[in-house]
Amino acid sequence: MKKRNRTIPSSSSTKVLITLVVIAITLLLLKNSIFDNKKNIMREGITTHSSTPLSQRSDQQTKTTSSELPQPALPQAPPTPPPVNGAESSPTKNSCEEVSSDILHFLTHLEHQQYIKSYALEEPIQERLSNIIAKILNTPPANEKETDDLSIIINNTSHFIRILGIKDLLLLKDIVTNEQPAMEQQFASLFAWSTLGEKCRANSALKLQLPLSKTYEYAAFFLNTLGGQSYLARRDSTLRTLLRYYSVLIIHQAIQQSINRYNINLPYHLEAVIRDITNSSSLANQALYLDTLQKIKQSP
Predict the structure, then answer these.
(1) Which residue, of 32, 38, 203, 242, is most buried by count of CB atoms within 10 Å of its CB?
(2) What is the pTM of this model?
């Protein structure tokens, strides 16, 4: 057999190969360095709203027990279940004035909290939150053909940071974190406010609009889109369950008023939320939620 002569790379070829490897490694290191710099810049930007670094704030929040959180002086009565037929409540003195007073009381409480003052807001907290809610409701996520385009899923997943910006998003997160004991009451009050008649809302000092046509968009988002479910998966179990519960109530209202334009399958989500609430150990009004859901389940 004839031996094949092996081709030995010339010294010039070897140098070229080594040069290319060195260039590749250098570019990789530069890329990682730039990425790390971007992350550092983002961290610094996030902490500009407070003199305390975000990492320290997170540690402090982790160490803080529920008993140490600020305890707003709010009515302790459980929230009134919404009307099962989805119709607006009549603006009686008890429902209208009490719901309005409860929300305004909570907003006054927020105004005096140090973590709110650290944001150095240019307007009262009521005005700031009203503007945030209006911005959210007027910029709905994509609820149709989400899976047709990956960019739609990505936009939905980052929906709130895109429309609010980091400062307002952190403000909402701080409120939810620090006011955890009051969350169930305030969710109930906000939902009750959305169901009251226009006459009640027009005569109240609380200037907050929560029309069903717009809250429906977010109920559909949380229950029926990958982006919305991804958002809920990143929240704690109590907030996640409350958002899903009130989303089901809103979808039920929409069906009653024939505006369920995305044809959300209510029975499927109803059963899922009943399971979540049944298995929850952190909801003060668990029995009331289950009773309300069972009435919806039995309604025509």
Answers:
(1) 242
(2) 0.70
